[in-house]
């Protein structure tokens, strides 16, 4: 049965939230919740991606023990939480805002009775990802550097504001956009994921009794997880290259994106491009599922919480 909504007084309908506000709030909320849930896995993944010796490949438990033993306590697993939370919440808010508006623009262009194709979803997601990456790259540079070392390590940033000051002092404005090129290549990951997610949602909606398009929370969990695994299996290497280019000494170690790729290939082989993959899978699956579950539910219930008639905003 479709969800039933109470009638709304006429004077409250004039204060309806716009779809853009709903998308932004839903994305922001999803980013905050997901970051709090899986941040320690992000710390582990970053440390593994920075390992250059073959002997340390995949030794996740040893690194976790080292972090908690050498850096004070289990609180060390939440180092860099603030830039990670700020980055994820802002990124998802901007991403879903632009994604919604770009999809709407394509829908208007194609006509109200036409269905969007996988290419339409891919283009909307890709363009949204490019805009988001450009706006948020400075946050990810600081986050990567904070997660890559303990708080008391030589030269380590003490806080997000300290990182901003140090980058400006030592590298200038260009330092905030290190790793942007591989990040832009990584846009393909989000584009592939969203194209798969949209088509899986559409297919699942068509399978429901009576052709209803309303999905359950279990549907969102399974579909978001499946689309993430599919996209991640194709595009993971760019994340390793990006992290290498965003570390403290990247300017002295690598001449650019191409040089980083060559050095990883020469010194570490194919495995070098997949370091941190296991904890990344462990991290991104819960993170993705939580993100999409919180996003879809916030997007659905926010109009009701606000006091207006709940409307359907298709992803």
UniProtKB/TrEMBL annotation:
Solcar repeats: 18-105, 116-203, 219-301
InterPro entries cross-referenced by the UniProt entry: MCP_dom_sf, MCP_transmembrane, SLC25A32-like
Annotated compartments: Mitochondrion inner membrane
Cellular component, GO annotation: mitochondrial inner membrane
Alphabetical keyword list: Membrane, Mitochondrion, Mitochondrion inner membrane, Repeat, Transmembrane, Transmembrane helix, Transport
Main location: mitochondrion
Membrane-protein topology: Multi-pass membrane protein
A biological process term (GO) from this entry: transmembrane transport
Source organism, top-level taxon: Eukaryota
Family statement drawn from the similarity comment of this UniProt entry: Belongs to the mitochondrial carrier (TC 2.A.29) family.
Protein name: Solute carrier family 25 protein
Species in which this protein is naturally found: Tothia fuscella
